[in-house]
Amino acid sequence: MAEQPAFAKQLERLEEIVRRLESQDLDLDEALKLFEEGVERLRGMRERLSAAETTVKQVLADQAGTLRGDDVDR
């Protein structure tokens, strides 16, 4: 399995895609290609954030013995 780029690098690329899509000098094909790439990167970033959230909840549960909802809502 190939290693995923760092989250910060993914975010930088996503920001670059947004800037390019907001510019008015793209043709439709290029805009669609960038949009598809952005959606795919966003999907991957959401999965990584979800996994990180699960890890944090597990660590809090292990530390406290029980997990309280207000521990993760801050």
Layout of secondary structure:
Elements (H helix, E strand, L loop, with lengths): L6 H16 L5 H37 L4 H4 L2
Helix pairs in contact: 1-2
Number of helices: 3
- Give the averaged pLDDT, no decimals: 85
Distance between the termini: 35 Å
Q: Provide the β-strand percentage band.
A: under 5%
Biggest β-sheet strands, sense, barrel: none
* Low-pLDDT segments: none
Quaternary state of this entry equals: single chain
Number of strands: 0
What share of residues is helical?
A: over 70%
What is the N-to-C order of secondary-structure elements (H for helix, E for strand)? HHH
| Helix/strand class | mainly alpha
How would you describe what is shown here?
This protein is mainly α and 74 residues long. It has one domain (7-72). The chain is built from three helices and no strands. Helix 1 runs antiparallel to helix 2. The model has no long low-confidence stretch (mean pLDDT 85).
Notable characteristics:
74 residues, 3 helices, mainly alpha
Offer a quick outline of the entry.
By secondary structure, the protein is an all-alpha fold. Helix content is 77%, strand content 0%. The chain has one domain (7-72).
